[in-house]
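As promised in the previous annual report, we have extended the structural survey to additional targets. Below is the entry for ABC transporter permease.
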Amino acid sequence: MNAASSEWTKFWSVRSTWWCLIAGVLLMLAYSGAVGLAANAGVERSMAPHAVVTGAAFYLTQFAVVALATLFITSEYASGSIRSTLQWVPVRNRVLAAKSAVLVPVLFGYGVLNTLVGVAISAPLIPARDSSVGDVLATSAGMGGYFALLGLLCLGLGTALRSTAGTIVTMFVLLVMIPMFAGSLGGEDALNYFPGFAGVNAMLNAGEPNPIFGGVAPYAPWVGIALCMAWAAAGLAAGSTVLRRRDA
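The corresponding structure token record, generated without further manual editing, is:
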């Protein structure tokens, strides 16, 4: 409990946390407003507001989450304060557990907030495609779960790589570059099992049109969350292994 309280204080006491959170909300506002205006003008095909925020989460806002979760661990390696952290909490896996206990509720709530912000800005612009309360709640829960699990994946990779740039580049490759190449080579079916696409599918009902690459969601939202959980577990396992075996 003391370790989690300490990590909570560290999380909120640095400016990077606030900048990342604010940047994510602004990116959601910008994307939702732009797509809403395009749909209103007939330039872009009209999507329901909850589908608009799903696209914003995938294309833009998720990278604010990536930066936030990555800096939560890699900034300690950059400054050398990780040595003090490990002296205070000698059982190293407890450090990861404490940081995870901070990230999960914060990022889940952040995902819900971003959904509400995106719907609030896009709904008045595309009145022809309303979202039901159930759609908004489902997207909120899916986005919150995706952001929380994405944060854990970044935490694990950041612990393993010990580099801010290295972790962010790795996440960009995993979220965007590899799926893009896989899609160009005819591996569209495999895309749904990468963390970013699994997160998008977690925000959609099975059979609902996918706003990212067309088609429909191939599985139920809980399957998307389960896939994200598997990726997060793999990242944390890698981070835990490196943290236990290497000196800080």
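The two ends are 23 Å apart (CA to CA). The chain has a mean pLDDT of 88. These points will be discussed at the next consortium meeting with the crystallography subgroup.
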